[in-house]
Amino acid sequence: MSVATEIQSITARQFETPAKFTQFCENGGQPLGGYINGEHVSGAMNASIDTVDPGSLEVLARVCEMGQEQVDAAAEAAHRAFLGNGVSGWRDFPMEERCELMMKLVELCERDRDVLLACEIRDGGKLSELAEGDFDQIRATAEYFCSIAPQLILGDSGHRAVAADTQGFTYREPWGVVAGIIPWNYPIVLTSWFMFPALLAGNCILIKPAEDTPLSALYIAKLAEEAGFPPGVINVLPGRGELTGQFIAENPLVRYISFTGSPGVGQHILRTCDRHGTRMKREMGGNGSAIVLDDADPAIVARKIGRHTNQHFGQTCCTIHRIFVDQKIADDFIDAQRDFFSGLKIGYQADAGTQLGAVINATQRSRILTAQQQATARGGQPLVEGGPAEVAGKEGYYIRPALYQTQPDVACNPDEVFHCFATICPVSSADQALQLANSSPYGLGASVWTKDTQRGIALAKQFRDGTAQVNCHNMIAYGLPYSGQGISGGPGAGVNCEETLTDYTQVKAVYVADYPG
Ligand code: NDP
User: Fold this and answer.
1) Please, are residues 36 and 77 in contact by the beta-carbon 8 Å criterion?
2) Is the pLDDT at 5 greater than 80, yes or no?
3) pLDDT at residue 187 greater than cutoff 80
4) Is residue 368 within 8 Å of 397, Cβ to Cβ?
5) What is the CA(248)–ligand 1 centre distance, in A?
6) How far is the C-alpha of 298 from the C-alpha of 348, rounded, in Å?
7) Quick one: which of 238, 244, 249 has its CA closest to 213?
8) N or C: which end of the chain has fewer CB within 10 A?
9) Residue 170: band (very low, low, confident or very high) from pLDDT cuts 50, 70, 90
10) Measuring from atom 34 of ligand 1, which residue has the nearest CA?
11) What angle do CA 436, 364, 264 make, to 5 degrees?
C-alpha cells in the first residue's frame, strides 16, 4: 500500500444517512427492544438508553435495557434452541445448513449495507473509509469459517483400547449457550468474529453489544430473523455492562463467554466466571509499540506509523502508542511525525475530508484529556499539545492529537490511552528499543520498521506480543491468529484461525469397559 493510500484510508468520504436507518431507529416511536427467542422485547426494568452520534450528540435511538429476567429468558431460549424442543436442535443441524443460513445472513447484510454503514458511522463515530473495510469483514469472516467448519470434527474420535477390557475415545461437542461481550470500537467486525465461529461450531448465542453502539447488533438480529435462523439461536441483549453484562456472566446456563474489551473489565468478568465454572476467552486492550531501525527512511515510516496511531482516531486495540526510534534518524523522524499529527484534519466523521473525528463518549474524552496531562507531568515533552478541540456547528467529543518526546528512563505512557496519542523515544540500539517495547504488561501488537527484513524478523520474534509485524502494523489475515499475550488476552488461540472454531467446543474423554462378570 502506498503512503498516499494509507492516508486515504483515514480520510472520510461524505456519508448521507439512509432513510431506512432512520426508520429503524425510530421504530414507530417505541424504544428498540432486545431480541430474544425470535421476538423483539422490552426490558422489565423499564430502563432505556439513548444511543447518540458522538460527533454531533444527536440522539439516534432509544434502546431498552435488558434486565435479569430478559437475560435469563434469553439463556433459556438459547439452551432450548441448542438441544431442540422435541425436534432437532441447533447442535444437530448439518454443517451445510448452518453455512447456508450464515451466507443468507451475509447476503441480507449486503442488501442493507448502507444501514449497517450508518450504524458504524453514526452510532460508532467511524469514518466511512474504515466503516466500509469493517463491513467487508462480515462476508470475509463467514466465508473463512464456512470453508474450515466442515473439517471440524464434532462427535467421537476413533475408539482405542486403553486396557485389556476397556476402550476409550474423545468426544468433541459445542459448549451450548455461548455469550459474546462486545466493545464499542468495532461493533460489526467483532460481532462477526464472535458470531460466525460460535454458531458454526453448534452453539446458540447471546450477543451483548456495548451500550454506546447497540444498533448494528440489533439490526443484524432483525436480518437473522429474516434469514430464517430458528428462534433462540441468536439473541441480542442491549444494556449496561455492569447490569446486563453482569447478569450474563452470572447465568449458569451460559457455559462460555467470548469477551473483547479492556483488561480491567475482562479480569472482573473472569472472576465472576470462575465462581460459576464458566469458561472465558479474552481479547483485550494493548499499548502498541513500533521500533524504527537506523536504516529506515524517517519520513516514509513516520507517515506509515502515523496511520496506525490514528486508525479510528487511536481507538483501535492495536494502535501504536509507543515509538522507539534509532537516535541516528530520530530528529528527522520526530519532525515528520510531528507534521503528520499536526496535519490531521479534525471534523465530523460523516463529512468529507475528516481524518480525526470525535471520541465515543464523555467518559473517554475526560480519560484522554487526563492522560495527556499526566504524560506531561511524568516528563513527556509535548511535540503536539493535545487538549480539547472544537468543530464548527457540532457538539461532539472532539480532542486534538497528542505527541510527546520521551527518553528511556521516562515512563510517561504506561496505560492504553484510546486516542491518537503517542510517545517517541530515541534509543541507542535495537536491543534497547526491544527491552523498552517489552517492558509493558500489555502484549497485543508490535512492529519493527527496517529495510533489512531478516533483521526485522529476528526482532519481531522477540516481541512479547500476540502479533508481531515487520514494515506493517495491525495486518489481519484469516488463518493467522489475532490474539494478545500478557494482560491483552488469553487463553485460547485468539480469533480468526482454525483453533478459534475449536475454542467454541469442548472435549471430553469417554471410557467404556466390558460389563463386569
Ligand atoms: P470495556 O471493557 O469497558 O467493555 C467491553 C464490554 O464489556 C462492553 O460491552 C461493556 O458494556 C461490557 N461490560 C462492562 N462491564 C461489564 C461487566 N461487569 N460484566 C459484563 N460485561 C461488562 O471496553 P470498551 O467498550 O471501552 O472497549 C475498548 C477496549 O476494548 C480497549 O481496551 C480495546 O483495546 C479493547 N479491544 C480489544 C480488542 C482485541 O481484539 N484485543 C479489539 C477491540 C477492542 P458497556 O459498554 O455497557 O460498558
Assistant:
1) yes
2) no
3) yes
4) no
5) 14
6) 31
7) 238
8) C
9) very high
10) 285
11) 60
DSSP designation for 122: I
Q: Which of 49, 63, 130, 181 to mutate to test the pocket of ligand 1 (most atoms within 8 A of CB)?
A: 181
CA of 257 to the centre of ligand 1 (A): 13
User: By the 8 A CB rule, do 45 and 65 touch?
Assistant: yes
Instruction: Indicate the pLDDT class of residue 291, thresholds 50, 70 and 90.
Output: very high
pLDDT bracket for residue 4 (50, 70, 90): low
Written as one letter, the residue type at 176 is G
CB-defined site of ligand 1, < 6 Å: 181-186, 208, 210-212, 240-242, 245-246, 249, 260-262, 265, 268-269, 283-286, 317, 416, 444, 484, 489
Name the residue with cell 501504536.
320
Name which CATH class applies to 286-470: alpha beta
- 384-406: per-residue pLDDT in tens? 999 999 999 999 999 999 999 99
273 is catalytic: no
Please state the atom number of ligand 1 nearest to the C-alpha of residue 265: 2
Residue 158: which pLDDT band, with cuts at 50, 70 and 90?
confident
Q: Which triple of cell numbers denotes residue 418?
A: 484510546
Of 357, 246, 330, residue with least CA distance to 13: 357
Domain residues of the chain, as ranges?
32-284, 286-470
Could you tell me where the DSSP H helices lie in 154-297?
A: 187-200, 215-227, 246-250, 263-276
* Residue 350 CA: distances (Å) to CA of 191, 241, 314, 376, 386: 23, 28, 18, 32, 23
**Domain 32-284, CATH:** 3.40.605.10
Provide mean pLDDT across the span 228-234.
98
Residue 99 annotated to the active site: no
pLDDT tens digits for 42-70?
987 678 999 999 999 999 999 999 999 99
